[in-house]
Amino acid sequence: MFARIREDIRSVFDRDPAARSTWEVLTCYPGLKAIWAHRIGHWLWTHGFKWLGRMVSQVARFFTGIEIHPGARLGRRFFIDHGMGVVIGETAEIGDDVTLYHGVTLGGVSWNKGKRHPTLGNNVVVGAGAKILGPFTVGEGARVGSNSVVVKEVPPGATVVGIPARVVQEQRAPSEKVVALAKRMGFDAYGLTRDMPDPVANAIGAMLDHIHELDDRLVRVCKLLHQLDSRMPELELKKLELPDFCAEAAGTEQAHEPAVKERKAL
To answer: What is the pTM of this model?
Structure first.
């Protein structure tokens, strides 16, 4: 028992640089207290003392803000950082070296008895506010982005983000045209980088690239037609006029003034 307690304390130091001393970890980490209380409740649950196991769970919830059903199965070196608002359902199963942040829900989508909560493999990390709903497996080493809603199986080693959560593919760097347009419109081009994977922003960037390529080709075609027949007018594409809120999105008056001047010049 004491070996498991020491192992739990070491896991806090391994994954939280804010931890300074063993005394601080013992007294100020609600996630650790919730896990220890769950072990007592789980023992009572599996030995037929169902009500008492639930009562231990409720007492732990009152003091820590973390609700772990006594029927849930937790692996070794499980770490809940901050912890407030974490909910783990009855048939949830969690592997070794898993990390959850505050606001995470391991829930079900059915009222039927039996397996209805997710299974997390070893070394899974679930970001703050994420919801994993259903009786499927999140593969070993997977990462779930903050505030994601996961409703289907996650492959081992994958990173998922969004609502509903999708596997993040390799990101490509935004083109120079997209970066220029981003500066003009207040659109965050850095949302397309690996530092902050965002499938929606990546799709928008790809569409912008495609639209600019079509515009360039259309202008070239019109110029060639004008050279063949001077009666054919050269095409001049109308520039996009930006509303004021796009300029204000840049956040400063210096960013606002060039956008207004550019809009007037178009």
So the answer is: 0.63
